[in-house]
Write a structure and sequence with these properties.
Elements: H1 6-16, H2 35-48, E1 53-60, E2 63-69, H3 77-94, E3 106-108, E4 115-117, H4 119-124
Antiparallel strand pairs: 1-2, 3-4
Protein name: Zinc ribbon domain-containing protein
Length: about 140
């Protein structure tokens, strides 16, 4: 699996790290094509909840799953609903963005692992584990 790690996303990981519930956070488990979505979701959460915490950021069933809470400790139902509103909007946005390269894509549910890919990256997956298109930066 292609992931956001210190080699390809150091700046983003440095921004995310203070909000992680895990002390050893080093990887976002999604492809580089979703880097902007992850960063924008983080920015929106941090604007609404400066002390927000996340426990996972990953691809799940072919879409971005940014699993977060308003802060460590107590929260209201309204605050949690707002967090879900923000994260769900980015999950929906990821349904049309290729996880690997960031170009327009669609959910590919005809494989053992569901992925959102563009046509080119989906074709590449037939013969390799990695795409030929370079991610949009």
């Amino acid at each position: 699996m292609w992931v956001l790690d210190p080699a390809n996303s150091r700046e983003l990981l440095d921004r995310l790290r203070p909000h992680s519930l895990s002390s050893d956070f080093e990887v976002v488990w999604c492809g580089e094509g979703w880097r902007a979505l992850v960063g924008d979701c983080h920015d929106d959460l941090a604007a609404a909840f400066p002390d927000y915490r996340f426990y996972a950021i990953k691809q799940e069933w072919g879409v971005l799953a940014f699993q977060a809470r308003p802060r460590a400790g107590e929260m209201t139902a309204e605050e949690l609903a707002r967090v879900h509103e923000i994260t769900d909007s980015y999950g929906q946005a990821s349904e049309v963005v290729c996880e690997w390269c960031g170009r327009p894509g669609s959910l590919r549910a005809d494989r053992p692992e569901w992925l959102t890919l563009c046509d080119r990256c989906a074709q590449d997956l037939e013969t390799t584990k990695y795409p030929r298109l370079r991610p949009i930066v």
